[in-house]
Amino acid sequence: MKVAAHEPPKGSSVTVYIMGKAHEVPAEATIMGAIEYAGQQIIRGAGCREGYCGACGTIYRLQGDYRIRTGLACTTLVEDGMTLAQFPFVPAEKAVYDIEKLQPNVSAIQQTYPVVFRCVACNTCTKSCPQGIQVMDYVQAAKRGDIAAVKDLSFYCVSCGLCMLRCPAEITQPLVATLAKRLYGRHLRKESPELAERVQAVEAGAFDAEYAEMMAMSHEALSERYYARDVE
Amino acid sequence: MYPEYMAESLRRVAATRARRLELARKPEPVYPPMDAGARRAVLEGFHPDFKPDARRPVRVGPNRGETLTTEVAHLLESHSWLHAGQVDLARPDHETDLLIIGGGGAGCNAALVAMQEHGVKSLIATKLRLGDANSMMSEGGMQAAVSRTDSPTRHYLDAIGGGHFENKPELVRALTEDAPKVVKWLEDLGVCWDKDEDGSLHVLHGGGTSRKRMLSCRDHIGAMIMRTLMDEVRNHPDMIDIEGFMPAVELIMDREGRCAGAVLYSLDSGEFYVVRAKATLISTGGFGRLHIRGFDTTNHYGATGDGLVMAYRAGAKLMYMDSVQYHPTGAAFPEQIAGFLITEKVRGAGGQPVNKDGELFVFPREPRDIEASAIIRECVQNGGGIETPSGRTGVWLDAPIIDLLHGEGYTAHHFASIHRQFLRYGIDITKDPMLIYPSLHYQNGGIEINERCETNIPGLYVAGEASGGLHGRNRLMGNSVLDYNVFGQRAGRYAGEYVKNVKLAKLTLDHLASFEQEMIEAGVQSDLVTPILLPSYAPEDVKKRRLVGGGTDGLPGTSVLKNRIYAETRERAPE
Ligand SMILES: Cc1cc2nc3c(=O)[nH]c(=O)nc-3n(C[C@H](O)[C@H](O)[C@H](O)COP(=O)(O)OP(=O)(O)OC[C@H]3O[C@@H](n4cnc5c(N)ncnc54)[C@H](O)[C@@H]3O)c2cc1C
Ligand code: SF4
Ligand code: SF4
Ligand code: FES
Fold this sequence. Notes:
By secondary structure, chain A is α+β, with helices and mostly antiparallel strands.
């Protein structure tokens, strides 16, 4: 018996094996759609449902193919004969740190995630990244302490954890990516010439009078001012 | 890949592109913008809020008699998961100073500020994982008046005009006045803002802005800010407790009418937990997953308006819950990403909505409600839409024109996420247009607050998309990312201050029985149990075969499947 609990789909369908159990699902479904079509309520394994949050990491194999493949359940389409399991969580210990005190160089990596230096450059992480990120390259950049490069290379990391699941050196890549972005934003950014000024002006009450004036205005007067305002 | 039958229409779009490119290169608008009369006509004729059955009076609770969005009225006239005696309020399972319900952007900001400014400990109870939230998903940007030609008061005027002058002025002042400080605060936590050569913040226009003030982190501002906040929250395990997969289902009050915590529900074990807290913050976000009027949504899985129901039963007043924001450009094809947000910036960069014949039918940058209505009109009245294999309709959003305007590579760089998303389905948006239709996007109103995030219930604070009053009935792009930061921080500040002096009396859930009583007296009959927690996307025949067809089948969320809101709206196609 192939079909789980209910009538087969109306259009064309494929058979997928969700945690080993066969289900007939619509051919154009995403993995997430297929799991739900099979009648399951996802609790762990769905978040944004649009490829941003990394809650839905999935590993699968295709028939007649020895390879283990990886994908996000919300954006990966089913294929006939696919055997899949969701991996919504990968154990990893986040380092606790004070971003103020870390230096934006290799010392930060040494203090927080020294495991990075175990990388054997096998490229498995890059091959398993559903975002198409050059994961190994950012791990290498982290080893060199090139924080800016880690930030740029890992910019679209969704922290799904699939790379760290597969990494033979047990490296926790997405945690390193988050750290690098924070180090960059905190310590390596170019200072904005006008931001501090504006914050000060607000604090000094530079806009108080104008606020008070507008907040006291009648609907009509405010509307008049709004429609008369110049647009840059 | 588009199905074969769309090829002819795609050819027409390509055929008119050169002509439309010429138009786009001229200073004049590519299509005449609507005047006030035309706007009113398209809104009243086609905006989903204006359908005769789109709103109805709510019969119980603090807003009784007021006309609300129909699905919201359904949601509010419903039963609690809890009945008397189910939990022991005298023996709380957990005590904390500040209970934060909802671990999105607003919730994380509040926890950090309560800790930093007052040394106050908090517990973040959230439905899924920390950061599984709309905050993770924003693409476009955040408004803040930081450039020299701009000012916070100008931002005030733009926001209040955008909200048709119905916004609460003190909230708009707080929003716009705090904005520069928030930018700095986030930057110091490590948010990487897009910068110009000289280090100034890179600013762009958004709908309704009179100065360029949209800040960005490429097209991933949501993930950038949210991941930074989550990481910092997790740097303080001794001050901030995080409980995932533990949604709140009901607020707890004390005998003196103060909010005193909440009952949480474990999605793992199905147990209820009592949390006693000196102050409680609702930061549960929006309601896109209610699929109002059958619309697809851009929102995350847990956006089911839970905060509204819990607060309402406890006696909190709602504001502007009669208007819904539909984003004009949600994906209509492929089916797998129906509802997926195509950011407004695509039109900002020159992308044009065109009909099946490749003809323009609307100025591409009308305000959101107008643009959405015009797209619906084109499909429903003018027959200019294309039907998808699954029966949706949509019009084209011509993006290939963007690279023609700005040079090759522009789209791939500036719209990397969308570009990648469509490539997964064999559609290259630098070569072919996207099929789009309005998508349910944002809860304009919510629980009424003041500038200290206080509600009419002492000890109950609200921040972010769950709150009402700030945006009037129409939120401008970029003001809600700012909203959850500004008001998340304010909530932490003022709730942190409040908890220092509060002594709770005996806890009670009596408000639940009173609410039930009020429903009986008003003659309200409903089989709906809320909060909804999670929508269900199981096929209808699966639901029918379940042990408990209409009600609970193990998980609160699963009852939603059968709940009226969903069943009713899904049966008809969106107009
Ligand atoms: C796709 C998309 C793109 C957007 N782009 C922009 C943009 O470019 N600019 C802009 O200004 N705005 C944008 N917005 C809007 C903006 O992102 C949201 O309005 C904002 O992030 C809301 O923040 P929040 O903290 O109030 O709610 P959320 O971030 O949604 O957080 C709410 C949290 O509460 C949890 N929760 C819900 N119910 C319960 C419960 N019962 N118990 C416990 N926890 C619960 C949720 O799971 C979630 O974690 C966008 C929204 C979406 C969906
Ligand atoms: S780098 Fe790793 S965690 Fe990040 S998206 Fe790729 S596979 Fe997922
Ligand atoms: S999988 Fe691990 S060891 Fe291999 S390249 Fe990636 S980080 Fe290095
Ligand atoms: S559910 Fe968020 S990435 Fe798939």
